[in-house]
Specification:
The protein is an alpha/beta fold. It folds into two domains: 2-152, VC0802-like; 164-218, no CATH class. The chain is built from five helices and eleven strands; from the N terminus they run βαβββαβαβββββαβα. It has helices at 17-32, 77-86, 108-121, 174-184, 207-215; strands spanning 2-7, 36-40, 43-47, 63-73, 92-99, 125-126, 133-139, 143-147, 151-152, 164-168, 188-192. The strands form two sheets. Strands 1, 2, 3, 4, 5, 6, 7, 8 and 9 form a nine-stranded mixed beta sheet that branches. A two-stranded parallel ribbon has the order 10-11. Strand 2 (36-40) and strand 3 form a beta hairpin.
Length: 225
């Protein structure tokens, strides 16, 4: 199964973009284990097991959205699109095309128009506002990615791009929310909890441990002091 990831504000980082992309790739691998990952013109293609819960991508900061995709040689794009359209039981469609490589002979608008014409021949009307289904096409140098729905993630910056911070964790709502928002800005967060127990081990099994465990779903691991 292929999952296409679009990252968030990394695209604004100019010459440092590669640094941010590499950390995002590392974070994806740490989250899912050793999986095959390919970078392709501002996109990250992940090959995962069919049993993988792809909604886990939402927990990785730096990702704008993700989708399960079909991959095709871009020269055979329209053949694949026609095959997909014939298998759709819908009356309306919204085609959305992005062309990252300008050597592809048709513009995004021209490609979208041709897909619309193909859909019309099959009795499917084009509706850009209230369509039953969206057909997304991303065209890169050699490849076209075809998918239906983008699943939104939290965006932000990859954890590890903005250094480490220490969060005072009280057990209320404010401190874990602050920790989560700090992770979203690229920081790796460790935690300090001040308690009144006679021994540290008495904190184990309390909501403090549960909060740290939940927050670590978004950054991998941490230290609790």
């Amino acid at each position: 199964m292929f999952v296409l990831v679009h990252h968030s504000e990394i695209i604004l980082k100019g010459k440092n973009r590669g640094f941010f992309e590499n950390i995002l790739v590392r974070n994806i691998q740490n989250h899912f284990g050793e999986i095959k990952i390919k970078k392709d013109m501002g996109r990250i293609l992940c090959t995962v097991d069919d049993k993988t819960n792809i909604n886990e991508f939402k927990k990785i900061f730096g990702i704008k959205d993700y989708a399960k995709v079909e991959i095709v040689d871009r020269n055979k794009l329209f053949e694949k699109v026609e095959e997909i359209l014939k298998n759709l039981s819908i009356k309306t469609l919204n085609p959305e095309v992005r062309r990252s490589d300008k050597s592809f002979p048709m513009t995004s608008i021209e490609t979208s128009k041709k897909i619309g014409e193909m859909a019309n021949k099959l009795g499917i009307k084009i509706d850009f506002k209230n369509a039953e289904k969206k057909l997304n096409v991303d065209i890169t140098k050699d490849t076209a990615y075809i998918f239906h729905e983008r699943q939104p993630a939290y965006g932000g910056l990859p954890v590890g791009t903005s250094g480490k911070v220490l969060c005072l964790l009280s057990g209320g709502i404010d401190s874990p929310v602050a920790a989560w928002m700090t992770m979203k800005r690229g920081c790796h967060v460790d935690f300090l909890h001040i308690h009144t127990y006679r021994e540290n081990k008495q904190v184990l099994g309390t909501k403090i441990e549960a909060l740290v465990k939940k927050l670590n779903e978004y950054q991998g691991n941490s230290k609790l002091f």
